[in-house]
Amino acid sequence: MMSPLEFFRTLPPKMCPECGEHMHEQAESYMMECDRCLSKKDE
């Protein structure tokens, strides 16, 4: 069985579904879109 630490280390990088760019995740962030795509929605 894989340890939880190893599981999280092997996850692929999170990608924005709008533009496909890799996102830099924050520990407590549940955002799905990147900052650039989110700022476009506010306009």
From TrEMBL:
Pfam families recorded: YhfH
Domain of life assignment: Bacteria
Designated name of the protein: YhfH family protein
Gene source species: Bacillus badius
